[in-house]
Write a structure and sequence with these properties.
The structure holds 2 protein chains of 2 kinds. Chain A is of the alpha/beta class. Chain A is built from 8 helices and 7 strands. Classes of the chains: A alpha/beta, B alpha/beta. Chains A and B meet through α4, α7 and α8 of A and β2, α2, α3, α5 and β8 of B.
Chain lengths: ~210, ~475
């Protein structure tokens, strides 16, 4: 069962790019690795490393100032594309606990929530404002899920989040266990499922 | 009261329970899995000592990182071999039907689902792959899911979902000759943007859709995710029923009338309401070619590479500059002046028989340009064998194409089929993201016709300028080989 999370506090890094797809977050060749551990090494691999394996100086996550950042402030449509949950595991293993953006790819958003990587949607102006602040000097954000607030310096921003998602973070629930409380409804559907919906091998294709 | 759309009807049929806040427990009739995204889901089951609730509704196939070369040789890539072996073990331990490397039904998961009759209208279907929307072409409600959700489906045969919004895309008019479903979907994405469909289910309708065969509709639904949509769906019609009938897992003759009755009942009502309706008039659509690093960065074949300076939105401008740098292109370049090094015909977008027939229409009687490496990777063993029975493989091989075994191949570049840094590819696949087809590779997404023409001419050409045989004519020629 995942550990409950109420507060995330950490340094923010501005990733001023839109449409960051999950292929960039973790390239497909690393999806062959079985397991979640150690994927942080491959997070944003092609943006972090040159072909010869040396670090690329032009990528913000390589900037020593942001090396300990745990909150990414990104442009719109973060996490679009492939459904690979490895993108979430890679971000988490890299040390990211929260991503703030104006919008997210649907599947990435769900995958993140299931793994307790918090995704916060904020209006574009607020995202830009946070990006600029984080660019100028160190920006430490304190995100409180119970209050649905982001606090920094003397300011407070509030954000909206699904009740179900918030509960999940605050209580660290095992979703399968919760679902199995509805087992009678599942069985009832299965009993009434028409036989034509069951994929029995009824015939062969002969060449 | 407004009527219901096909999505509403399938959603209601499969709703087991709805929470006050709108989270809904949906029953899943079909779960397709492959070697890449399933491993941790099975591990999760093992850890909790859980089993697969409905092995009879769950099917596994090897597709993402399988070699497309000789299947009898051992897999050279150690990690791929391990991942493939893991799926084999999981299918055995959890008692699932597996279409392995040597199965005559092996292929890309979104190709084999429909062709085996695993996908039928009116069902809910999930797969740990974002292109699962493909199955919507048959009138199934199909969602691409992550690994955690996959584990949840394995254990419970259900999924928690929040009801997406509905977007109707009406495709009106009649497509010009040799302008295809691929051009339509690139045009749609170009217009709605990569995030335009976020939170929505797209329903396609209109005369252009009705005119398309079922495989072409799959191309249309396949790339809905590239417009951000949760999935895509099309109300089934006689073409779909004829497509499904007689397939290995499709309803038998005794059940057929019952199935038909249900399938006819789920089509969208004429007065169904949608959160958003978009119309596209496609009488003058031209072949589309992507120029950048996401599928919305698309222009028509007679257009030029756009100038980032002309984008108003600063985000778009920055993205265009970055994309042109990556792609090694200059603003103002004509699409038809762009040379290609590699041509890839295949993938869950365009790896079906219709696509291979289309490509063969161009290739027949021509040769691949001397400086181009060209691959045909059929979407499945069934597609491959059908093509071979028709004689299409000879057309490709004689022209200088490589004729491979089925898999995801150069669409995702997890196996050995990949671009070298800087290589430029005309590809029938679905993503032109940076490094997608191999580190440093440059992808232009196009239709099978446009890709085949690029192979022959070594650059993009306007396919409408060629005098092409019809699909029927090319099949006649192929048979005579």
């Amino acid at each position: 069962m995942p550990e409950p999370i109420r507060v995330i506090e950490g340094k923010a890094v501005p990733l001023k790019l839109e449409n960051v797809d999950t292929d960039q977050i973790i390239p497909a060749e690393f999806l062959k690795i079985l397991g979640k551990k150690g994927l942080g090494r491959y997070c944003f691999y092609r943006w972090r490393y040159n072909e010869d394996g040396s670090l690329r100086g032009d990528f913000i996550l390589n900037n020593p100032r942001y090396r300990d950042a745990s909150i990414i402030i990104a442009g719109k449509n973060f996490g679009i594309g492939s459904s690979r949950e490895n993108a979430v595991w890679a971000l988490q293993d890299f040390g990211i606990k929260c991503v703030i953006a104006p919008s997210f790819g649907d599947i990435f958003y769900v995958n993140s929530m299931k793994n307790m990587l918090l995704c916060i949607k904020l209006p574009e102006e607020q995202v830009k404002m946070l990006q600029e602040l984080a660019e100028k000097e160190d920006l430490i954000l304190r995100i409180d899920l119970e209050e649905s607030t982001i606090k920094f310096r003397d300011r407070i921003l509030s954000f909206e989040i699904d009740k179900a998602v918030r509960e999940r973070f605050l209580q660290g629930l095992d979703e399968i266990e919760i679902t199995l409380k509805h087992i009678e409804k599942i069985k009832k559907y299965e009993e009434s499922m028409p036989s034509f919906m069951i994929p029995n091998p009824r015939r062969f294709i002969t060449d | 009261m407004a009527g219901k759309s096909i999505f509403d009807k399938i959603w209601e049929f499969h709703t087991l329970y709805e929470k006050e806040d709108g989270e809904t427990l949906i029953y899943v009739d079909r779960h397709l899995t492959h070697e890449v995204t399933s491993y941790m889901a099975f591990e999760g089951l093992r850890e909790k000592n859980r089993r697969v609730r409905r092995p009879d509704l769950t099917f596994a196939v090897m597709d993402h990182n399988v070699p497309t070369t000789d299947r009898l040789k051992p897999i050279r890539d150690e990690l791929s071999a391990k991942q493939i072996a893991a799926l084999e073990k999981n299918a055995k331990d959890f008692k699932l039907t597996l279409f392995d490397l040597y199965s005559p039904y092996q292929g890309i998961v979104h190709v084999i689902g429909p062709e085996l009759g695993l996908t039928i209208p009116g069902i809910t279907l999930v797969c740990g792959d974002s292109h699962t929307s493909t199955h919507g072409a048959l009138g199934a409600l199909a969602f691409g899911i992550g690994t955690s959700e996959g584990e949840h489906v394995l254990a419970t045969q259900t999924l928690w979902l929040r009801k997406p919004k509905k977007m109707l895309i009406n495709l009106e008019g009649k497509l010009p000759e040799n302008v295809t479903a691929k051009d339509v979907i690139l045009w749609v994405i170009r217009n709605i943007g990569t995030g335009g469909g976020i939170g929505h289910v797209i329903e396609y309708d209109g005369p252009v859709v009705r005119e398309m065969n079922v495989e072409e509709r799959m191309t249309l639904c396949n790339m809905a995710i590239e417009g951000g949509a949760r999935t895509a769906i099309i109300s089934p019609d006689e073409k779909v029923f004829n497509y499904v009938r007689g397939r290995p897992y499709a309803p038998s003759d005794d059940e057929w009338s019952q199935a038909l009755e249900y399938w006819r009942s789920i089509v969208s009502d004429l007065d169904a309401d949608y959160h958003k309706t978009i119309r596209f008039h496609l009488d003058k659509l031209e072949p589309q070619v992507t120029w950048g690093t996401n599928p919305a960065m698309t222009v028509g074949v007679t257009e030029e590479i756009p100038d980032p300076g002309e984008f108003d939105d600063p985000g778009e401008k920055q993205a265009a500059e970055r994309a042109l740098k990556y792609m090694g292109l200059n603003p103002g370049t004509k699409i038809t002046d762009i040379n290609v090094d590699v041509v890839f015909i295949g993938s869950c977008t365009n790896g079906r028989l219709t696509d291979l027939v289309d490509a063969a229409r161009v290739v027949l009687g021509r040769k691949v340009a001397h400086n181009v490496r060209a691959l045909v990777v059929p979407g499945s063993q069934l597609v491959k064998r059908s093509a071979e029975r028709l004689g299409l493989h000879r057309i490709f091989i004689d022209a200088g194409f490589e004729w491979r075994n089925p898999g995801c191949s150069m669409c995702i570049a997890m196996n050995e089929d990949r671009l070298r840094p800087g290589e430029r590819c005309a590809s029938t696949s679905n993503r032109n993201f940076e490094n997608r087809q191999g580190p440093g590779g440059r992808t232009h997404l196009v239709s099978p016709l446009m890709a085949a023409a690029a192979a022959v001419y070594g650059r993009f050409i306007d396919i409408r300028e060629l005098d092409l045989p019809s699909r029927e004519e090319v099949l006649e020629h192929a048979g005579a080989y």
